[in-house]
Every structure is written in structure tokens, then in C-alpha cells.
Specification:
This protein is α/β, with parallel strands linked by helices. The chain has 15 helices and 19 strands. The strands form six sheets. It has an eight-stranded parallel beta barrel with strand order 1-2-3-4-5-7-12-16, surrounded by five helices. Strands 6-8-9 form a three-stranded mixed beta sheet, covered by helices on one side. Strand 14 and strand 15 form a beta hairpin. The longest helix has 25 residues. The mean pLDDT is 97.
């Protein structure tokens, strides 16, 4: 039997914007996702938008009971900035304040450790209209929002999180057009990344001022970049891919400084952000207490075949090509590679290069399209998901045995949730959500996950 350390956390992650939904009179303001769906609903799978997410807002008591039924000892969700402060930097919505207090109190009453994230890709649209993360004013508004959250909810929150996967809005908002504002503007993207990091560091500072004993971290998708071969050009491509994808937030968050090579590349392309000297001091002096790590699939790269066109806007792919490794193991339902060894490699990297900082595997899961075809006798028989989790936990256990400072495993996610432009296309939950009547049904993996938690292993 593979046994995990005492007090190891077992649970799941989700976000407010992907589960709460909206009802008449809830006082919530528009986020960028609400606005974009109204503007271009055809971009969203089956034209399902964020107002029709998993109705957690109405059913949270029942859903929190389902956490217990599936063996959760930890649960991670997020506060929607646009729900709590509808115009971003004005008055608090009292209905939202009471809602979040009820949810967080309910989690703690059930004996579950609570991790709360402040930002999961969902900027209040009022702030986006003022320039969003490209403008320095957003940092001030975010710090105020963070302080309000610390002051109002700290008694229930065990661990705070500043941002979830902050590189994603940078990449997909300013390079690849999967997040609003769906621009192609590398200079703006770099500025957004810097303001996000500065805001995260200021939130760390504020949290420690309000409660010096409270842990606050950041959640990063630390996808390892694997070179096609050991040819020096391929190795260089992987190193630079990892600079952009992982180290751009990992190094300033944990070490308090940016990698010199990344700065040189940004300088070379005339993309340096505007900043004040004191900003670098804030980043240097306010590093996180722990990391959340999200891992789904590896990033495989090769040296680029071609030089970029001189008139092309800058993309990180100037320095690498994406590479499909022959014979790779696949999730046939999602089209993603499955590479369990990535968990071990992430753990080794944190242990060897980042002071073995405390961390939690905050997202790992298997998305399946058309999962209803696996339903037998009213229950989805998702043995493939159980196998996926087991195989990744085996690698995580190996890393812990070798000294990795990992404190828990949170699957994505507890109930099938809405997911950005993909809406409900791919299901990840331990619990099935029936969109016709919003009923919840525990999958085979949900029952198995409770055994996993109770046995602290498998």
C-alpha cells in the first residue's frame, strides 16, 4: 500500500466564477467573462455562459455535504471580486459578504481545511474598461480588495492564495485570444504580468500585516518543458520555454527576483514594462509562504525550424516549437498527453532549486468529453479517472519519499464545472452535474476518493 504522511490533505479545487452562477438580485457585477459572453456568445461551447454555471450559489449547503461524502479534508475555491465589490474599487456588496461568510463557515463546520483564492481570471468589467491589468491603478484596487477579504474572512480561511495561474491571462489575453480582451499585444502582456506580480506581492505584505501567522501563497501551473532531444538547440528551447511559462512568476514569487535571462530576452524585444524602483523592493521583500502547483500535461518543445517573420508581433514561440513526442500516452477523450512523471520532476525542481518550499498539488485531473456514455446503473464508472489519479499519486509519493515538501493533493474538481470557452465540454468532477435539472450524482471516482482519504493512501 502507498501511504502518505500524517495530516496529508485530500480534497479538490474549484473557483467561484466556474461554479456560483448568478441569480436575480444577488448584487453581482459583471466580470470580463460575463461581458464577453454577452458580446460574443458564439465563442463559448454550446453558447453556455458563466451565469449558468453549477448553481453553487443556490446549493452550497448540499454541495458542502457532498465534500464530506467524497472524503474531503481540504477544499479550495475563490472569491469573485465582481461579486464582492461589483464596481471593482467601490462599495462592498452586503449580499455577497454574507454569502461567502456562510460558505466559509460551512466548510469549517464540516472539519475541512479551507484554501481561498482571491483571483481566478475574473476581473470586474468596470476595471477592465479603465485598462485592466495594463494600468498601475489596478494594483491599488486589487490590494484594497485583498485587504477587505483578509479583514472580513480571515477567521475561517486556513490558507490564502493571491492568484491562480497568473501566466494564463497573460498568454491567453494578450497572445492567444482565449481570454478577454483577446488582444495580440506582447508589450501589454508583459505589463500585465508585472502588475499581476506586484499585486500578488502587495497582497502577501497585507496578509502578513493583518495576521502574521496566516500562510499565503500563489498557485502556478508549473508545466515542465521537456526538450525533443539533448541537442543543445533543443535544450535551449526548453530552458527558454520554461522561463516564460513557469519562472516568470515562480522566481519573483519564491525568490523575490526575476531570472536574468528572462529580463535580457524581454529587453532584447523592447518589451520591458514600466515600473518604479520601489516595486522591485516590494517583490523582493514579500515572497510567498507556500506554493500551489497545478499539473495536467507536459510541455514538449523543440528548437524552432524557422526564423520569425520580421513583421510578426512577438510570441514566446519565437524561441521554440511545440513538439509531439512519438508514442506518447494520451487521454483520448481530451486530446492531452498523460505524463505522470511530470509530478515527480516538478517536486525535484522545487526541492533542489526553490529551497524545498512547502507546496500542495492544487490541481490535477482528467477531463472527458461525452462522459455520460460511461454511465451504468445511474453511476458514471470512471475507472480511467481513478487510474489517472493513482498513477500521478504514485509519482508524488516517490517524490515525498525523497524529501519533497508536499502537504496535500487536490483534484480538479469536485462537481463538473463550467470552464471558460469550453463551458461543459470536458467533465472533470468526482460528482456528475446533470445540466437538465442541476442534480448531483457521485461518480465511482468520488466513492473511491473517500476511501483514498480515509486510508491516507491506496
Amino acid at each position: 500500500m502507498i501511504q502518505f504522511p500524517k495530516d496529508f490533505l485530500w480534497g479538490s479545487s474549484t473557483s467561484g466564477v466556474q461554479t456560483e452562477g448568478r441569480i436575480e438580485g444577488d448584487g453581482k457585477g459583471d466580470s470580463t467573462w460575463d461581458y464577453w459572453f454577452k458580446l460574443e456568445p458564439q465563442k463559448f461551447h454550446q453558447e453556455i455562459g458563466p451565469e449558468t454555471t453549477s448553481t453553487f450559489y443556490q446549493h452550497f449547503e448540499k454541495d458542502l455535504d457532498l465534500l464530506v461524502e467524497t472524503g474531503h479534508t481540504a477544499f479550495r475555491t475563490s472569491i469573485q471580486w465582481s461579486r464582492l465589490i461589483p464596481d471593482g474599487d467601490g462599495a462592498i456588496n452586503p449580499i455577497a459578504l454574507e454569502f461567502y461568510k456562510q460558505v466559509f463557515r460551512g466548510v469549517k463546520e464540516r472539519g475541512i481545511e479551507l484554501l481561498v483564492n482571491l483571483y481566478h481570471f475574473d476581473l470586474p468589467m468596470v476595471l477592465e474598461e479603465k485598462g485592466g491589468w495594463t494600468k498601475r491603478e489596478i494594483v491599488v484596487a486589487y490590494e484594497r480588495y485583498a485587504r477587505i477579504c483578509f479583514e472580513e474572512f480571515d477567521e475561517w480561511v486556513d490558507r490564502w492564495i493571491t492568484f491562480n495561474e497568473p501566466i494564463v491571462p497573460v498568454e491567453h489575453g494578450y497572445f492567444y485570444q482565449n481570454h478577454y480582451p483577446a488582444a495580440v499585444d506582447a508589450k501589454a502582456g508583459v505589463q500585465v504580468a508585472f502588475h499581476t506580480q506586484l499585486a500578488s506581492s502587495l497582497a502577501v505584505k497585507a496578509c502578513h500585516q493583518i495576521n502574521p501567522d496566516k500562510k499565503i501563497g500563489i498557485v502556478l501551473n508549473l508545466t515542465p518543458a521537456y526538450p525533443r532531444s539533448q541537442h543543445p538547440a533543443d535544450v535551449k528551447a526548453a530552458r527558454i520555454a520554461e522561463l516564460f511559462q513557469a519562472k516568470s512568476f515562480l522566481d519573483p514569487s519564491v525568490k523575490g527576483r526575476y531570472p536574468a535571462e528572462l529580463i535580457e530576452i524581454i529587453k532584447h524585444h523592447d518589451l520591458l514594462p514600466s515600473f518604479e524602483e520601489c516595486d522591485l523592493e516590494v517583490i523582493r521583500e514579500n515572497i510567498v509562504d507556500y506554493l500551489g502547483v497545478n499539473y495536467y500535461q507536459p510541455l514538449r518543445v523543440a528548437a524552432p525550424k524557422y526564423l520569425p517573420h520580421p513583421d510578426s508581433p512577438f510570441f514566446p514561440e519565437f524561441y521554440y516549437d511545440h513538439y509531439q513526442m512519438p508514442g506518447r500516452k494520451m487521454n483520448p477523450h481530451r486530446g492531452w498527453e498523460i505524463y505522470e512523471r511530470g509530478v515527480y520532476d516538478i517536486a525535484q525542481n522545487i526541492q533542489n532549486d526553490y529551497g524545498n518550499i512547502e507546496w500542495i498539488l492544487t490541481e490535477n485531473g482528467m477531463g472527458v468529453e461525452g462522459e455520460e456514455k460511461f454511465k451504468v446503473g445511474g453511476t458514471i464508472q470512471d475507472d480511467y479517472r481513478i487510474e489517472f489519479i493513482k498513477d500521478h499519486l504514485t509519482e508524488l509519493h516517490r517524490a515525498i519519499q525523497e524529501g519533497a515538501n508536499c502537504k496535500g493533493y487536490l483534484v480538479w474538481t469536485f462537481i463538473d464545472c463550467w470552464s471558460w470557452l469550453n463551458s461543459y465540454k470536458n467533465r472533470y468532477g468526482l460528482i456528475e452535474l446533470d445540466l437538465t435539472d442541476q442534480s448531483r450524482h457521485i461518480k465511482k471516482s468520488g466513492h473511491w476518493f473517500k476511501e483514498l482519504s480515509q486510508q491516507n493512501g491506496f
